[in-house]
Amino acid sequence: MIIALVQFKLPAPVSVEKATALFEGSAHLYRDMPGLIRKHYVLTEDGTTAGGIYLWETRDAAERVYDGAWRKMVMERYGSEPQVTYFASPVSVDNVSGEILAPAG
Description:
This protein is of the alpha+beta class and about 100 residues long.
Protein backbone atom coordinates (compact mmCIF):
# COMPACT_ATOMS: atom_id res chain seq x y z
CA MET A 1 0.00 0.00 0.00
CA ILE A 2 1.03 3.59 -0.60
CA ILE A 3 0.08 6.76 1.22
CA ALA A 4 0.08 9.99 -0.74
CA LEU A 5 0.18 13.23 1.21
CA VAL A 6 -1.18 16.04 -0.93
CA GLN A 7 -0.73 19.62 0.27
CA PHE A 8 -1.46 23.02 -1.20
CA LYS A 9 -1.39 26.56 0.17
CA LEU A 10 -4.68 28.43 0.16
CA PRO A 11 -4.81 32.02 -1.14
CA ALA A 12 -6.40 33.10 2.16
CA PRO A 13 -7.10 31.24 5.39
CA VAL A 14 -10.40 29.37 5.51
CA SER A 15 -12.50 28.12 8.40
CA VAL A 16 -13.26 24.46 8.97
CA GLU A 17 -16.86 25.20 7.89
CA LYS A 18 -15.74 26.74 4.57
CA ALA A 19 -13.24 23.91 3.99
CA THR A 20 -15.97 21.34 4.67
CA ALA A 21 -18.16 22.90 1.98
CA LEU A 22 -15.26 22.98 -0.50
CA PHE A 23 -14.25 19.39 0.25
CA GLU A 24 -17.81 18.06 0.04
CA GLY A 25 -17.96 19.59 -3.44
CA SER A 26 -15.23 17.26 -4.71
CA ALA A 27 -15.68 14.19 -2.49
CA HIS A 28 -17.92 12.43 -5.02
CA LEU A 29 -15.02 12.39 -7.49
CA TYR A 30 -13.17 9.90 -5.27
CA ARG A 31 -16.03 7.43 -4.69
CA ASP A 32 -15.27 4.04 -6.23
CA MET A 33 -11.99 5.34 -7.68
CA PRO A 34 -9.87 2.39 -8.87
CA GLY A 35 -7.06 1.65 -6.42
CA LEU A 36 -8.14 4.18 -3.78
CA ILE A 37 -8.77 2.59 -0.40
CA ARG A 38 -9.43 5.72 1.65
CA LYS A 39 -9.09 9.50 1.48
CA HIS A 40 -9.01 12.01 4.32
CA TYR A 41 -9.32 15.70 3.51
CA VAL A 42 -7.08 17.82 5.77
CA LEU A 43 -6.79 21.46 6.80
CA THR A 44 -4.11 23.00 9.00
CA GLU A 45 -5.33 24.55 12.23
CA ASP A 46 -4.56 28.05 10.93
CA GLY A 47 -6.57 27.38 7.75
CA THR A 48 -3.72 28.26 5.37
CA THR A 49 -2.89 24.83 3.97
CA ALA A 50 -5.22 22.05 2.85
CA GLY A 51 -4.94 18.74 1.09
CA GLY A 52 -5.55 15.07 1.51
CA ILE A 53 -4.11 11.89 2.90
CA TYR A 54 -4.81 9.02 0.52
CA LEU A 55 -4.32 5.30 1.05
CA TRP A 56 -3.76 3.61 -2.32
CA GLU A 57 -3.33 -0.02 -3.32
CA THR A 58 -0.31 0.95 -5.46
CA ARG A 59 1.70 3.98 -6.47
CA ASP A 60 0.68 3.37 -10.09
CA ALA A 61 -2.98 3.79 -9.08
CA ALA A 62 -2.15 7.08 -7.38
CA GLU A 63 -0.08 8.40 -10.27
CA ARG A 64 -2.91 7.67 -12.72
CA VAL A 65 -5.03 10.16 -10.76
CA TYR A 66 -2.45 12.87 -10.08
CA ASP A 67 -2.18 13.87 -13.73
CA GLY A 68 -2.35 17.23 -15.47
CA ALA A 69 -6.16 17.38 -15.37
CA TRP A 70 -6.20 16.69 -11.62
CA ARG A 71 -3.52 19.32 -10.98
CA LYS A 72 -5.51 21.83 -13.04
CA MET A 73 -8.66 21.05 -11.04
CA VAL A 74 -6.78 21.66 -7.76
CA MET A 75 -5.32 24.93 -9.09
CA GLU A 76 -8.74 26.18 -10.23
CA ARG A 77 -10.56 25.06 -7.09
CA TYR A 78 -8.02 26.04 -4.43
CA GLY A 79 -5.65 28.52 -6.09
CA SER A 80 -2.26 26.82 -5.83
CA GLU A 81 -0.16 23.97 -7.17
CA PRO A 82 -0.48 20.73 -5.18
CA GLN A 83 2.59 18.99 -3.78
CA VAL A 84 2.45 15.19 -3.58
CA THR A 85 4.67 13.13 -1.28
CA TYR A 86 4.57 9.32 -1.34
CA PHE A 87 5.13 6.99 1.60
CA ALA A 88 5.20 3.19 1.74
CA SER A 89 2.52 1.90 4.11
CA PRO A 90 3.44 -1.69 4.94
CA VAL A 91 0.84 -2.01 7.72
CA SER A 92 -2.37 -0.08 8.45
CA VAL A 93 -4.51 -0.37 11.59
CA ASP A 94 -8.24 0.31 11.16
CA ASN A 95 -10.00 0.54 14.52
CA VAL A 96 -13.40 1.08 12.90
CA SER A 97 -13.40 -2.23 11.02
CA GLY A 98 -11.12 -3.93 13.55
CA GLU A 99 -8.69 -4.88 10.81
CA ILE A 100 -4.93 -4.77 10.49
CA LEU A 101 -4.09 -4.46 6.81
CA ALA A 102 -0.79 -5.82 5.59
CA PRO A 103 -0.83 -6.61 1.89
CA ALA A 104 0.82 -9.80 0.73
CA GLY A 105 4.27 -8.99 -0.58
